[in-house]
Amino acid sequence: MSEGFFLRTMMPEDADAVARIGYESWVEDRFHPEWFEPAVERRVHDAFRKFADDPQADVVVCQVTDEIAGWGARDSRDHPGDRSQPWNYISDLWTAPLWQGKGIGTAIIDELLSRMRAETIETATIEVVEANHKAHRLYLKRGFAEMWRGDTFSETLGLPIRRILLERPLG
């Protein structure tokens, strides 16, 4: 990673940046016409705000000098926020549009995988919207392999989404 970049666990004072980056990144990479509807935009904005204010997950931020440039989170896919379950699911990966393509997403993924290995987790999972080809390529480069493709309903969007589930062994 470049000089001046560092990764750390999210602190409460990062909440505004985390919410803003998540929402701005989502806006930048919207793939479906329905995602431009004001009601959908408001739900997504509110969901990022709620998450940032009370992240029931392990959240890593990437800081560049005095600003947050991106963040990622992990928890349990089937039991979000339940620490009695293995937190082997990368639930979020968001990079501020200005910082995309500079290695921040890779660094965050690697940090989350390192934390999983430290907990002796054997397999990591991540999902991506099928139309998000940039993210899909990144996950494949980081050693993830496709396990499933299908439609799921997004509570946040209020819409069905075509997703790809990927896994990576950590041994």
UniProtKB/TrEMBL annotation:
- Stored Pfam families: Acetyltransf_1 (PF00583)
Q: What is the lineage of its organism?
A: Bacteria, Pseudomonadati, Pseudomonadota, Alphaproteobacteria, Hyphomicrobiales
Q: Name one GO molecular function term.
A: acyltransferase activity, transferring groups other than amino-acyl groups
Q: Does the keyword Acyltransferase apply?
A: yes
The name this protein goes by in its record: N-acetyltransferase domain-containing protein
Enumerate the CDD domains for this protein.
NAT_SF (cd04301)
> Which InterPro entries is this protein grouped with?
Acyl_CoA_acyltransferase, GNAT_dom, YpeA/RimI_acetyltransf
Q: Does the keyword Transferase apply?
A: yes
